[in-house]
Design goal:
The chain has 17 helices and 20 strands. The chain is of the alpha+beta class. The two termini are 42 Å apart.
Length: 592
């Protein structure tokens, strides 16, 4: 059942009125700003004429901070395109509206903390891509929607949505308690959606790519790795490639997710912190929980592991291989491919070796195909689950290659490609440009949401070639990642945890209980950066300003250089003290 698409927000000093303006609609959602009561009026005449009115595009939900509840609404949306005749939108602008008209009920420290909480919600919305539809169930793949019953399709949109991909589920919890409000409850998905037009052989079709990012174990690159106790993995993304042609539709699904073991990789100022495997948790149990749900959702699994077979990554590769062997599940097949070794010296043509290993499974799994009369033609019976360390750069390259092979078959089935004709015969066409750039944009979106920068290796995705300019761009992105992962990601992780409801703000924070935002660092360690800066500055000065005696200048340089190196060394030894650590949900779990 559809959600209202046309809404007007009326604001008075004591209430918010959200009026539905869809054809035939007369309902008004009323939020009492004083009592915090939420109820439904059947007549728009209840709205005072003195109210300040403006159009909105939907309700994200309600979030409770120190100052009390805040109503979060969508104020602007951009059209992405249409799937099955239904419009898909991207959240473009929003507003966070407090119930209370001031902050006088908070003390000074609480007011400062409340501003930080507000900035976290702003960051969580601004730094992620959110998509929604008032009619189409964007959280489910075409195949899952086809396999549902008529009763399921008549259910309210929020109620039937896949909870893994509904990012505002926590924020709508107060509305969910009243089923009659279902037409105001808009499920919002985080990830990537692109809907493009393709033309090959003068035949027009829609090319669609959807990446659905799971809200379970969501967060930032180094603060979210591996499994949790329920079998959810970090950075899990379901990617669906859809082709629409003359009413018929085809889709191909792949998944990605962190290595399904209990492991961590906390930032500590090193460029690549050493991954740590848990010695207390049963990797096999967690692995089974993860893949039990994956098999139910997707069928057979081909796990493609792209991490290195040497160094710190090798320990994870061996542990995963051993776990899969010990589990002995016939529905899970393991392919280990050392991406960096095989493609060294820019030999990216060697990716064909990996594709060859996947051919038989891909042919067996097939893809979903539905004719224009809604008759099932084909069914996808399994997926490729790809991962590298971050499940970003290497993963996206491989997924793009496998998706291209599925697309080749689908276009031939539709008759867009002639018999025996290949996609590679159209390398100079506009669609080739569209395909490559759509997958590169998908890579950048997934990477920005997890690592804080655009993806690496996108020059290959966009052009089919690895270039020196691409390597330079990767170097810049790697440097930005290093900075963000060490000095920004604590705040980013807290923003995600607050938005998703992994941490609930207590209104008594700063009064009866301490506020976690006010955790202080050890002053002894905080002196080291200052000493390091002074020592390095004095070293430069000693080099630039000559001394009357050369040996004295050399001594000064050596002294200050030694002081710089020692303080830097101490900072790296105590690296965890200097990185931006999360203060909310993860800190609370650590204490417990």
């Amino acid at each position: 059942m559809a959600v209202y698409e046309t809404l007007i927000l009326h604001t008075t000093d004591d209430k918010y009125y959200i009026e539905a303006r869809d054809p035939g609609a007369r309902e008004v959602l009323v939020i009492d700003r004083l009592s915090q009561e939420i109820y439904l009026e059947r007549d728009a005449s209840q709205v005072p004429s003195s109210a300040f009115s403006r159009p909105i595009c939907g309700i994200v939900g309600i979030i409770r901070l120190l100052a009390g509840p805040y109503l979060v609404v969508i104020t602007k949306k951009n059209k992405v395109g249409e799937i099955d005749g239904e419009t898909i939108w991207k959240l473009a602008s929003y507003d966070i509206l407090p119930y209370k008209r001031g902050l006088l009920h908070l003390n000074e420290e609480q007011q400062q903390d409340n501003k930080i909480y507000e900035s976290m919600i702003n960051y969580a919305i601004e730094c992620n891509d959110y998509y929604f539809s008032t009619n189409y169930d964007l959280t489910h793949s075409l195949q899952r929607l086809y396999n549902t019953s008529p009763e399921f399709r008549q259910m309210p949109l929020f109620e039937r949505a896949d909870e893994r991909f509904v990012w505002n589920r926590h924020m709508l919890r107060e509305l969910v308690q009243q089923p009659e409000l279902h037409r105001f409850m808009l499920p919002i998905m985080c990830g990537f959606v692109a809907i493009k037009m393709g033309i090959i052989n003068s035949k027009r079709f829609d090319y669609i790519l959807i990446s659905r990012r799971s809200c379970f174990r969501a967060g930032c690159r180094y603060y979210m790795r591996g499994l949790d106790s329920e079998g959810h993995v970090a950075n899990f993304v379901e990617t669906e490639q859809i082709v629409q042609y003359n009413g018929a539709r085809a889709s191909f699904i792949q998944t990605r997710g962190s290595i399904p073991l209990y492991w961590s990789q906390r930032p500590n100022l090193k460029y690549k912190p050493t991954p740590q495997l848990s010695k207390t948790q049963s990797h096999q149990d967690g692995f089974n929980r993860h893949f039990d749900s994956q098999i139910v959702n997707y069928g057979n699994q081909v796990v493609i592991n792209l991490i290195d077979h040497k160094g710190a990554e090798n320990k994870l590769e061996q542990s995963l291989a051993k776990t899969i062997f010990d589990v002995g599940n016939s529905l899970i097949r393991y392919i280990s491919f050392d991406f960096h070794h095989e493609c060294r010296k820019m030999r990216w043509d060697r990716l064909s070796l990996l594709v060859e290993k996947c051919v038989s499974d891909q042919d067996k799994f097939g893809y979903f195909m539905m004719a224009a009369d809604n008759i099932l033609v084909k069914h996808q019976t399994g997926v490729f689950r790809s991962n590298c360390m971050d499940c970003l750069d290497r993963t996206n390259v491989v997924q793009g290659l496998l998706a291209r092979r599925a697309l080749q078959d689908q276009l031939q089935y539709f008759g867009i490609l002639r018999s025996g004709e290949m996609l590679d015969d159209h390398l100079s066409t506009a669609f080739e440009y569209t395909y490559k750039n759509t997958w590169a944009d998908n890579a950048d979106a997934c990477s920005l949401q997890y690592a804080g920068t655009g993806a690496l290796k996108t020059d290959f995705t966009r052009t089919g070639k690895r270039t020196r300019l691409g390597l330079l761009k990767d170097g810049v992105n790697s440097a930005i990642r290093y900075y963000k992962n060490n000095f920004v990601d604590g705040f980013r992780q807290d923003s995600v945890d607050l938005f998703l409801g992994n941490y609930i703000v207590e209104e008594t924070e700063g009064i009866t209980i301490s506020c976690p935002l006010r955790r202080t660092r050890d002053v002894r360690f905080m002196l080291l950066p200052a000493i390091c800066i002074v020592a390095f500055s004095m070293c430069i000065i000693s080099i630039l300003i000559p001394s009357a005696e050369l040996y004295l200048q050399v001594l000064y340089i050596l002294f200050w250089l030694t002081a710089t190196v020692l303080t830097l060394g101490l900072m790296f030894v105590h690296g965890l003290e200097f990185v931006d650590q999360p203060k909310l949900a993860q800190a609370k779990l650590k204490e417990e």
